[in-house]
């Protein structure tokens, strides 16, 4: 019986995997051709290794095959949901966020529709039921499973190490690679090659430490989901008054070419703080915070003259999220200010610390701190979901615009109050990514967000405006901030 069921299970697993992996978008229908042979070989070796492992645990073949295909189908479903919401398929670094899903479920479950949650819950229940009810004590099948898993794993290891994958790893493109090789092959190839990737080299020694002017103040505000409503929804939208004032007085302004949509704050944050160009990151670009500690020499606080600046990182949220509690001290920040420093939102103010509270803290710090001060602040009030009682896309848009106005108020207050300090001030303000709002702001189009750099001199005057129509990457924005400091407020 074992001799008959084993090849049947292998065949069923292979056909099932090819079918469900082909449904991962961009799928075979989109490409107009099947996945290539290399991706198919990786898929089948991975599926066979998993089948052997499940048989070793359960002692039965056909239920194990069903379980493997069900797992692959769940992976495809999650990837397709993510692509619908955020514009890109599942990537290997997403698995590093599994723990965060349980610690901060509101960030993730709010992006799912009710039927998504129902399917995922039922699928998980089916997995548990299969394992608990269909496992047997067949020792022979378990031993065969061990042998099968070991042989397939060795073959998979050799396939993933092939030199033919190197160009893909050096120039990754999720849509291109999933379309050509399949979701599971892309996940495994990316994961294997990222583990062997060399970290970015130290910054060039030609980069001098920036001292800036005496008593200089640098404030960088990374604003959650901040976007120009006219760029999002059309020219008929009224302009944001704070952004309009900042643009009119900006030393530098324009579009920030962020790589994420609707999420992946850490990509933009890493680019501005650590300043490593994305092309140098390779596969690490998908979640650069996982390896950011190896790029500490590039970080903004470490690019400022050590001993002359006091650097503070501010984020009104759990600093363990993305490991900021470890990374920011490594990046050179002298002080970390988290959610405990802010009042909890009042009734009707939403679930996150308000931008007004962040602005209050920034202005109080700017008024009291002396010497060269650098503050990098991250806001969170305008984090989704932008649901207004389930009333539909128009109401969700109105809710987003309501919270966006709070972010714009923060910028307007900083523009009004910082010149009164009578000290050299450089203010940089930018959006981390555009919002993902079903039916209103969807992936697939432009991703850029606005940025402004405004400089005030010691006599409270704004430095004459410069270029107002620039397109910069986040790492280039770091260079622009340093250039603004080095140029002197009176130039």
Report what the structure shows.
The protein is an alpha/beta fold and 491 residues long. The protein is built from 20 helices and eight strands. An eight-stranded mixed beta sheet has the order 4-3-5-1-6-7-2-8, with helices on both faces. Helix 1 packs parallel to helix 4 (62-86), helix 3 (37-58) runs antiparallel to helix 8 (139-160) and helix 10 crosses helix 11. The longest helix has 25 residues, at 62-86. The N and C termini lie far apart (85 Å).
What are the SSEs and their pairings?
Elements: H1 2-22, H2 28-31, H3 37-58, H4 62-86, H5 98-103, H6 106-109, H7 114-134, H8 139-160, H9 166-170, H10 174-181, H11 183-195, E1 217-223, H12 229-233, H13 241-249, E2 252-256, H14 265-274, H15 278-281, H16 300-303, E3 309-314, H17 324-330, E4 335-337, H18 355-368, E5 372-378, H19 393-417, E6 425-431, E7 449-456, E8 467-472, H20 474-487
Parallel strand pairs: 1-5, 1-6, 2-8, 3-4, 3-5
Antiparallel strand pairs: 2-7, 6-7
Shape: elongated
Give the SSE order as H and E letters.
Answer: HHHHHHHHHHHEHHEHHHEHEHEHEEEH
The amount of helix comes to: 40-55%
The oligomeric state is single chain
Q: Outline the low-pLDDT stretches.
A: none
Largest sheet descriptor? 8 strands, mixed
* Helix and strand composition category: alpha/beta
Give the beta-strand count: 8
Radius of gyration, CA atoms, in whole angstroms: 26 Å
Distance between the first and last residues' Cα:
85 Å
Figure out the total of helices: 20
How are strands sequenced across the largest beta sheet?
A: 4-3-5-1-6-7-2-8
Task: Please state the average pLDDT score.
Answer: 89
- β content, as a range? 5-15%
